[in-house]
Amino acid sequence: MPLHPEAQILNDLIDQEHPSLGKALSSFGRRVYAPKGIPFQAQQAAGCKVNATIGQITDGKGQPLPLDRLAGLMKDLPQKDVFLYSPIQGRERCRTLWKNKLIAEDIRFSTLSLPGVSLGICHALAMATDLFFERGDTLVVPDLYWDNYDQIFEVRHEARMVHYPFYDGTTFNIKGLKQVLDEVSGKVHVLLNFPNNPTGFSPTLNEIKQISDLLVSAAEKRIVVVYCDDAYHGLVFEPNATTQSLFFELIDRHPNLIALKADGVTKELSFFGGRVGFLSLGLSGPVGQYLNEKICGLVRGSVGSPVGISQFLSEEELLDPQHESSFQNLKSILEKRYRVLQAGLSQGSPFWTPLPFNSGCFCLLQLKPGLEAEKVRQQLIKDESVGVVSHLDRYLRIAFCSMTEEDISILLQALHRTCEKMEISRF
Ligand SMILES: Cc1ncc(COP(=O)(O)O)c(C=O)c1O
To answer: How many whole angstroms from 185 Cα to the centroid of ligand 1?
Structure first.
Protein backbone atom coordinates (compact mmCIF):
# COMPACT_ATOMS: atom_id res chain seq x y z
CA MET A 1 0.00 0.00 0.00
CA PRO A 2 1.50 3.39 -0.99
CA LEU A 3 2.17 5.77 1.88
CA HIS A 4 -0.05 8.83 2.23
CA PRO A 5 2.03 11.91 1.30
CA GLU A 6 1.61 13.27 4.84
CA ALA A 7 3.02 10.02 6.27
CA GLN A 8 5.90 10.23 3.82
CA ILE A 9 6.71 13.78 4.89
CA LEU A 10 6.61 12.81 8.56
CA ASN A 11 8.75 9.71 7.98
CA ASP A 12 11.30 11.75 6.02
CA LEU A 13 11.58 14.17 8.92
CA ILE A 14 12.04 11.30 11.38
CA ASP A 15 14.56 9.49 9.15
CA GLN A 16 16.64 12.64 8.74
CA GLU A 17 16.54 13.62 12.38
CA HIS A 18 16.94 10.20 13.94
CA PRO A 19 17.51 7.34 11.46
CA SER A 20 17.29 4.61 14.13
CA LEU A 21 13.87 5.84 15.22
CA GLY A 22 12.73 5.68 11.60
CA LYS A 23 14.09 2.13 11.40
CA ALA A 24 12.45 1.16 14.67
CA LEU A 25 8.95 2.05 13.44
CA SER A 26 6.74 -0.83 12.36
CA SER A 27 5.21 -0.80 8.88
CA PHE A 28 1.95 0.34 10.47
CA GLY A 29 3.89 2.95 12.45
CA ARG A 30 5.31 4.29 9.19
CA ARG A 31 1.83 4.53 7.64
CA VAL A 32 0.40 6.58 10.52
CA TYR A 33 0.25 10.38 10.31
CA ALA A 34 -1.73 13.19 11.95
CA PRO A 35 -4.53 13.90 9.48
CA LYS A 36 -5.27 17.50 8.57
CA GLY A 37 -8.97 16.70 8.75
CA ILE A 38 -11.86 18.08 10.76
CA PRO A 39 -10.27 18.53 14.23
CA PHE A 40 -7.17 20.11 12.68
CA GLN A 41 -9.25 22.51 10.57
CA ALA A 42 -11.54 23.27 13.51
CA GLN A 43 -8.53 24.17 15.64
CA GLN A 44 -7.30 26.54 12.95
CA ALA A 45 -10.72 28.18 12.87
CA ALA A 46 -10.99 28.38 16.67
CA GLY A 47 -10.61 32.16 16.72
CA CYS A 48 -13.01 32.84 13.80
CA LYS A 49 -16.22 34.86 14.24
CA VAL A 50 -18.26 32.05 12.72
CA ASN A 51 -17.03 28.51 13.16
CA ALA A 52 -18.84 26.00 10.98
CA THR A 53 -16.14 23.36 11.14
CA ILE A 54 -16.59 20.68 13.78
CA GLY A 55 -19.70 18.59 14.46
CA GLN A 56 -20.15 19.43 18.12
CA ILE A 57 -23.41 21.02 19.18
CA THR A 58 -22.93 24.53 20.59
CA ASP A 59 -24.83 27.78 21.11
CA GLY A 60 -23.03 29.15 18.05
CA LYS A 61 -20.66 31.09 20.30
CA GLY A 62 -18.49 28.18 21.33
CA GLN A 63 -20.39 27.13 24.47
CA PRO A 64 -21.85 23.61 24.72
CA LEU A 65 -25.57 22.89 24.91
CA PRO A 66 -25.72 20.06 27.45
CA LEU A 67 -28.85 18.23 28.49
CA ASP A 68 -30.37 19.20 31.84
CA ARG A 69 -29.35 16.34 34.11
CA LEU A 70 -25.75 16.35 32.90
CA ALA A 71 -25.58 20.13 33.15
CA GLY A 72 -26.93 19.90 36.70
CA LEU A 73 -24.41 17.28 37.75
CA MET A 74 -21.55 19.32 36.38
CA LYS A 75 -22.76 22.80 37.16
CA ASP A 76 -19.64 23.67 39.15
CA LEU A 77 -17.30 22.72 36.32
CA PRO A 78 -16.41 24.87 33.31
CA GLN A 79 -18.91 23.72 30.69
CA LYS A 80 -16.59 23.98 27.71
CA ASP A 81 -13.91 21.89 29.40
CA VAL A 82 -16.21 19.07 30.34
CA PHE A 83 -18.69 18.89 27.47
CA LEU A 84 -16.68 19.71 24.34
CA TYR A 85 -14.05 17.65 22.55
CA SER A 86 -10.49 17.57 23.80
CA PRO A 87 -7.82 18.35 21.20
CA ILE A 88 -6.68 15.11 19.55
CA GLN A 89 -3.19 15.48 21.01
CA GLY A 90 -4.68 16.01 24.47
CA ARG A 91 -5.22 19.19 26.44
CA GLU A 92 -2.15 21.39 26.59
CA ARG A 93 -2.66 22.09 30.30
CA CYS A 94 -2.92 18.40 31.11
CA ARG A 95 0.19 17.48 29.13
CA THR A 96 2.17 20.38 30.60
CA LEU A 97 1.20 19.54 34.17
CA TRP A 98 2.14 15.90 33.65
CA LYS A 99 5.42 16.90 32.07
CA ASN A 100 6.16 19.21 35.02
CA LYS A 101 5.42 16.37 37.40
CA LEU A 102 7.93 14.17 35.55
CA ILE A 103 10.54 16.95 35.49
CA ALA A 104 10.14 17.28 39.25
CA GLU A 105 10.88 13.56 39.48
CA ASP A 106 13.92 13.85 37.24
CA ILE A 107 15.27 16.94 35.49
CA ARG A 108 16.37 14.86 32.48
CA PHE A 109 12.74 14.82 31.36
CA SER A 110 12.92 18.58 30.70
CA THR A 111 14.61 18.03 27.32
CA LEU A 112 11.71 15.89 26.06
CA SER A 113 8.51 16.84 24.27
CA LEU A 114 5.15 16.97 25.96
CA PRO A 115 3.78 13.45 26.47
CA GLY A 116 1.07 12.18 24.14
CA VAL A 117 -2.30 11.55 25.78
CA SER A 118 -4.04 8.17 25.73
CA LEU A 119 -7.13 6.60 27.24
CA GLY A 120 -5.30 5.00 30.15
CA ILE A 121 -1.97 3.24 30.38
CA CYS A 122 -3.07 0.13 28.57
CA HIS A 123 -3.95 2.27 25.57
CA ALA A 124 -0.59 4.08 25.79
CA LEU A 125 1.14 0.68 25.61
CA ALA A 126 -1.11 -0.46 22.78
CA MET A 127 -0.24 2.68 20.79
CA ALA A 128 3.46 2.18 21.51
CA THR A 129 3.27 -1.34 20.14
CA ASP A 130 1.29 -0.18 17.10
CA LEU A 131 4.12 2.21 16.33
CA PHE A 132 7.08 -0.09 16.93
CA PHE A 133 6.04 -3.71 17.01
CA GLU A 134 6.21 -5.57 13.71
CA ARG A 135 4.21 -8.77 13.53
CA GLY A 136 6.27 -11.63 14.96
CA ASP A 137 8.90 -9.43 16.65
CA THR A 138 10.43 -10.66 19.90
CA LEU A 139 9.35 -9.33 23.29
CA VAL A 140 11.61 -9.99 26.25
CA VAL A 141 9.59 -9.98 29.47
CA PRO A 142 10.10 -11.79 32.82
CA ASP A 143 8.19 -15.01 33.48
CA LEU A 144 5.99 -13.19 36.02
CA TYR A 145 4.19 -10.41 34.16
CA TRP A 146 0.82 -8.62 33.94
CA ASP A 147 -1.33 -11.01 31.91
CA ASN A 148 -2.70 -8.24 29.70
CA TYR A 149 0.68 -8.10 27.90
CA ASP A 150 -0.52 -11.29 26.23
CA GLN A 151 -3.34 -9.28 24.64
CA ILE A 152 -1.25 -6.21 23.85
CA PHE A 153 1.78 -7.99 22.38
CA GLU A 154 0.87 -11.56 21.57
CA VAL A 155 -2.74 -11.33 20.41
CA ARG A 156 -2.49 -7.96 18.68
CA HIS A 157 0.99 -8.36 17.19
CA GLU A 158 1.78 -12.08 17.27
CA ALA A 159 4.78 -11.39 19.49
CA ARG A 160 7.32 -14.09 20.14
CA MET A 161 7.50 -13.85 23.93
CA VAL A 162 10.87 -14.73 25.44
CA HIS A 163 10.97 -15.06 29.23
CA TYR A 164 13.56 -15.15 31.99
CA PRO A 165 12.95 -15.80 35.69
CA PHE A 166 11.82 -12.56 37.38
CA TYR A 167 13.85 -13.15 40.54
CA ASP A 168 17.48 -13.86 41.16
CA GLY A 169 17.31 -14.86 44.84
CA THR A 170 15.56 -11.99 46.58
CA THR A 171 15.96 -9.39 43.87
CA PHE A 172 15.26 -8.69 40.20
CA ASN A 173 17.12 -10.98 37.83
CA ILE A 174 19.42 -8.67 35.87
CA LYS A 175 21.63 -11.60 34.86
CA GLY A 176 18.61 -13.40 33.42
CA LEU A 177 17.67 -10.34 31.40
CA LYS A 178 21.23 -10.11 30.08
CA GLN A 179 21.26 -13.76 29.15
CA VAL A 180 18.10 -13.57 27.03
CA LEU A 181 19.21 -10.32 25.42
CA ASP A 182 22.48 -12.01 24.46
CA GLU A 183 20.52 -14.88 22.93
CA VAL A 184 18.17 -12.74 20.82
CA SER A 185 19.69 -11.21 17.71
CA GLY A 186 18.30 -8.29 15.71
CA LYS A 187 15.62 -5.81 16.75
CA VAL A 188 14.23 -6.64 20.17
CA HIS A 189 11.53 -5.24 22.46
CA VAL A 190 11.94 -5.24 26.24
CA LEU A 191 9.17 -4.64 28.72
CA LEU A 192 9.96 -3.59 32.29
CA ASN A 193 7.33 -2.76 34.89
CA PHE A 194 8.27 -1.42 38.34
CA PRO A 195 6.61 -1.45 40.82
CA ASN A 196 5.64 -4.72 39.28
CA ASN A 197 2.33 -6.38 38.71
CA PRO A 198 1.94 -9.20 39.76
CA THR A 199 4.98 -9.48 42.08
CA GLY A 200 4.80 -6.12 43.89
CA PHE A 201 8.57 -5.81 43.54
CA SER A 202 10.80 -2.79 42.79
CA PRO A 203 14.59 -2.93 42.49
CA THR A 204 17.08 -0.55 44.13
CA LEU A 205 18.31 2.58 42.35
CA ASN A 206 21.66 0.93 41.81
CA GLU A 207 19.94 -2.03 40.14
CA ILE A 208 17.90 0.33 37.96
CA LYS A 209 21.18 1.86 36.81
CA GLN A 210 22.61 -1.58 36.09
CA ILE A 211 19.51 -2.48 34.05
CA SER A 212 19.84 0.74 32.08
CA ASP A 213 23.54 0.09 31.35
CA LEU A 214 22.64 -3.39 30.20
CA LEU A 215 19.98 -2.04 27.83
CA VAL A 216 22.41 0.55 26.46
CA SER A 217 25.00 -2.11 25.71
CA ALA A 218 22.31 -4.34 24.16
CA ALA A 219 21.54 -1.43 21.80
CA GLU A 220 25.13 -1.17 20.52
CA LYS A 221 24.46 -3.20 17.41
CA ARG A 222 20.68 -3.31 16.97
CA ILE A 223 17.44 -1.52 17.80
CA VAL A 224 16.17 -2.06 21.32
CA VAL A 225 12.69 -0.73 22.08
CA VAL A 226 12.08 -0.50 25.83
CA TYR A 227 8.59 -0.11 27.24
CA CYS A 228 8.68 1.25 30.80
CA ASP A 229 5.29 0.51 32.28
CA ASP A 230 5.16 2.88 35.25
CA ALA A 231 1.52 2.28 36.17
CA TYR A 232 2.28 1.95 39.91
CA HIS A 233 4.79 4.77 40.14
CA GLY A 234 5.32 6.13 43.65
CA LEU A 235 3.78 3.23 45.56
CA VAL A 236 7.00 2.02 47.19
CA PHE A 237 7.10 1.02 50.85
CA GLU A 238 10.71 0.14 51.63
CA PRO A 239 13.56 2.65 51.69
CA ASN A 240 15.97 0.57 49.59
CA ALA A 241 13.47 0.06 46.76
CA THR A 242 13.51 2.98 44.36
CA THR A 243 10.59 5.09 43.19
CA GLN A 244 12.80 6.32 40.35
CA SER A 245 11.62 5.26 36.91
CA LEU A 246 14.03 3.27 34.77
CA PHE A 247 12.91 5.49 31.89
CA PHE A 248 14.89 8.50 33.13
CA GLU A 249 18.09 6.43 33.02
CA LEU A 250 17.44 5.64 29.36
CA ILE A 251 16.86 9.17 28.04
CA ASP A 252 19.21 9.95 25.13
CA ARG A 253 21.57 7.14 26.11
CA HIS A 254 21.99 5.58 22.67
CA PRO A 255 20.50 6.30 19.22
CA ASN A 256 19.38 2.66 18.90
CA LEU A 257 17.72 2.67 22.29
CA ILE A 258 14.09 3.71 21.84
CA ALA A 259 12.77 4.18 25.37
CA LEU A 260 9.05 4.66 25.91
CA LYS A 261 7.28 5.54 29.15
CA ALA A 262 3.65 4.62 29.70
CA ASP A 263 2.09 6.13 32.81
CA GLY A 264 -1.08 7.84 33.88
CA VAL A 265 -3.64 8.93 36.41
CA THR A 266 -5.14 5.48 37.01
CA LYS A 267 -3.15 4.64 40.13
CA GLU A 268 -1.00 7.77 40.50
CA LEU A 269 -4.10 9.93 40.97
CA SER A 270 -6.28 7.01 42.08
CA PHE A 271 -8.56 7.89 39.16
CA PHE A 272 -9.27 4.45 37.76
CA GLY A 273 -12.28 5.28 35.63
CA GLY A 274 -10.77 8.50 34.33
CA ARG A 275 -8.87 6.81 31.52
CA VAL A 276 -6.06 9.31 31.13
CA GLY A 277 -2.65 7.92 30.28
CA PHE A 278 0.51 9.31 28.74
CA LEU A 279 3.11 8.05 26.31
CA SER A 280 6.56 9.67 26.32
CA LEU A 281 9.57 9.09 24.09
CA GLY A 282 13.03 9.16 25.69
CA LEU A 283 14.74 11.06 22.87
CA SER A 284 15.17 14.83 22.93
CA GLY A 285 14.86 17.12 19.92
CA PRO A 286 12.09 17.44 17.33
CA VAL A 287 11.56 13.66 17.09
CA GLY A 288 9.41 13.86 20.22
CA GLN A 289 7.01 16.13 18.37
CA TYR A 290 7.10 13.89 15.29
CA LEU A 291 6.18 10.91 17.43
CA ASN A 292 3.35 12.91 18.95
CA GLU A 293 2.00 13.44 15.44
CA LYS A 294 2.02 9.68 14.96
CA ILE A 295 0.18 9.34 18.28
CA CYS A 296 -2.45 11.82 17.05
CA GLY A 297 -2.96 9.65 13.99
CA LEU A 298 -3.43 6.56 16.17
CA VAL A 299 -5.86 8.32 18.52
CA ARG A 300 -7.83 9.73 15.60
CA GLY A 301 -8.08 6.31 13.96
CA SER A 302 -9.11 4.39 17.08
CA VAL A 303 -10.78 6.27 19.95
CA GLY A 304 -11.35 9.50 18.00
CA SER A 305 -10.20 11.87 20.70
CA PRO A 306 -9.08 11.62 24.34
CA VAL A 307 -11.50 12.12 27.25
CA GLY A 308 -11.71 15.87 27.91
CA ILE A 309 -13.52 15.82 31.25
CA SER A 310 -11.06 13.37 32.80
CA GLN A 311 -8.12 15.40 31.63
CA PHE A 312 -9.70 18.52 33.13
CA LEU A 313 -10.31 16.77 36.46
CA SER A 314 -6.77 15.37 36.50
CA GLU A 315 -5.39 18.86 35.90
CA GLU A 316 -7.36 20.18 38.85
CA GLU A 317 -5.98 17.41 41.08
CA LEU A 318 -2.41 18.11 39.96
CA LEU A 319 -2.89 21.85 40.56
CA ASP A 320 -4.34 21.35 44.02
CA PRO A 321 -1.85 22.58 46.67
CA GLN A 322 -2.92 19.57 48.76
CA HIS A 323 -2.18 17.10 45.97
CA GLU A 324 1.12 15.79 47.34
CA SER A 325 -0.17 15.34 50.88
CA SER A 326 -3.33 13.73 49.55
CA PHE A 327 -1.23 11.22 47.61
CA GLN A 328 0.91 10.56 50.70
CA ASN A 329 -2.26 9.87 52.70
CA LEU A 330 -3.37 7.35 50.12
CA LYS A 331 0.08 5.79 50.10
CA SER A 332 0.12 5.48 53.87
CA ILE A 333 -3.22 3.63 53.80
CA LEU A 334 -1.66 1.14 51.37
CA GLU A 335 1.54 0.99 53.36
CA LYS A 336 -0.36 -0.04 56.51
CA ARG A 337 -2.00 -2.89 54.60
CA TYR A 338 1.38 -3.80 53.14
CA ARG A 339 2.91 -4.02 56.64
CA VAL A 340 0.01 -6.09 58.00
CA LEU A 341 0.37 -8.48 55.08
CA GLN A 342 4.15 -8.72 55.48
CA ALA A 343 3.67 -9.45 59.20
CA GLY A 344 1.02 -12.10 58.49
CA LEU A 345 3.18 -13.79 55.88
CA SER A 346 6.30 -13.69 58.06
CA GLN A 347 4.67 -16.28 60.32
CA GLY A 348 5.25 -18.83 57.58
CA SER A 349 2.97 -21.44 56.07
CA PRO A 350 3.27 -25.10 55.12
CA PHE A 351 1.24 -24.32 52.00
CA TRP A 352 2.90 -21.33 50.36
CA THR A 353 6.00 -19.18 50.09
CA PRO A 354 5.57 -15.45 49.51
CA LEU A 355 7.81 -14.05 46.78
CA PRO A 356 9.78 -10.90 47.73
CA PHE A 357 7.67 -7.73 47.50
CA ASN A 358 8.21 -4.16 48.63
CA SER A 359 5.89 -1.94 46.59
CA GLY A 360 2.85 -1.60 44.35
CA CYS A 361 -0.52 -3.17 45.04
CA PHE A 362 0.11 -6.92 45.04
CA CYS A 363 2.04 -9.84 46.37
CA LEU A 364 2.44 -13.26 44.91
CA LEU A 365 2.31 -16.51 46.89
CA GLN A 366 3.94 -19.57 45.42
CA LEU A 367 1.91 -22.62 46.37
CA LYS A 368 3.71 -25.75 47.47
CA PRO A 369 3.85 -28.58 44.89
CA GLY A 370 0.56 -30.44 44.60
CA LEU A 371 -1.63 -27.39 45.15
CA GLU A 372 -3.00 -26.01 41.89
CA ALA A 373 -3.55 -22.26 41.91
CA GLU A 374 -6.74 -22.27 39.88
CA LYS A 375 -8.34 -25.02 41.98
CA VAL A 376 -7.38 -23.27 45.21
CA ARG A 377 -8.81 -20.00 43.89
CA GLN A 378 -12.15 -21.59 43.02
CA GLN A 379 -12.38 -23.43 46.33
CA LEU A 380 -11.57 -20.24 48.21
CA ILE A 381 -14.51 -18.47 46.61
CA LYS A 382 -16.83 -21.42 47.21
CA ASP A 383 -15.91 -22.26 50.80
CA GLU A 384 -14.71 -18.96 52.19
CA SER A 385 -16.15 -16.23 49.97
CA VAL A 386 -12.64 -14.90 49.40
CA GLY A 387 -11.40 -13.86 45.97
CA VAL A 388 -7.79 -13.87 44.81
CA VAL A 389 -6.27 -14.23 41.34
CA SER A 390 -4.59 -17.41 40.16
CA HIS A 391 -1.46 -16.75 38.21
CA LEU A 392 0.06 -19.48 36.04
CA ASP A 393 -0.36 -22.88 37.66
CA ARG A 394 1.15 -22.30 41.11
CA TYR A 395 0.83 -18.67 42.14
CA LEU A 396 -1.90 -16.70 43.86
CA ARG A 397 -1.90 -12.92 43.55
CA ILE A 398 -3.22 -10.97 46.52
CA ALA A 399 -4.29 -7.39 45.81
CA PHE A 400 -3.70 -5.84 49.23
CA CYS A 401 -4.60 -2.46 47.72
CA SER A 402 -8.28 -3.38 47.82
CA MET A 403 -8.54 -4.97 51.29
CA THR A 404 -8.95 -3.60 54.78
CA GLU A 405 -6.17 -4.36 57.25
CA GLU A 406 -8.59 -6.58 59.22
CA ASP A 407 -9.46 -8.63 56.15
CA ILE A 408 -5.83 -9.50 55.49
CA SER A 409 -5.58 -11.99 58.37
CA ILE A 410 -9.07 -13.29 57.51
CA LEU A 411 -7.80 -13.98 54.00
CA LEU A 412 -4.65 -15.73 55.17
CA GLN A 413 -6.61 -17.93 57.60
CA ALA A 414 -9.17 -18.78 54.92
CA LEU A 415 -6.40 -19.63 52.49
CA HIS A 416 -4.74 -21.83 55.09
CA ARG A 417 -7.99 -23.74 55.72
CA THR A 418 -8.65 -24.18 52.02
CA CYS A 419 -5.13 -25.42 51.27
CA GLU A 420 -5.32 -27.79 54.25
CA LYS A 421 -8.62 -29.27 53.04
CA MET A 422 -7.29 -29.66 49.52
CA GLU A 423 -4.15 -31.34 50.82
CA ILE A 424 -6.18 -33.80 52.87
CA SER A 425 -8.49 -34.62 49.97
CA ARG A 426 -5.43 -35.40 47.79
CA PHE A 427 -4.52 -38.35 49.99
C1 LIG B 1 1.28 -3.24 35.02
C2 LIG B 1 0.08 -2.50 34.55
N3 LIG B 1 0.18 -1.73 33.48
C4 LIG B 1 -0.88 -1.07 33.00
C5 LIG B 1 -2.11 -1.17 33.59
C6 LIG B 1 -3.28 -0.51 32.94
O7 LIG B 1 -3.59 0.73 33.41
P8 LIG B 1 -4.87 1.46 32.88
O9 LIG B 1 -6.01 1.00 33.71
O10 LIG B 1 -4.54 2.91 33.02
O11 LIG B 1 -5.06 1.10 31.43
C12 LIG B 1 -2.27 -1.97 34.71
C13 LIG B 1 -3.60 -2.10 35.34
O14 LIG B 1 -3.92 -3.01 36.03
C15 LIG B 1 -1.16 -2.67 35.19
O16 LIG B 1 -1.25 -3.49 36.24
So the answer is: 29
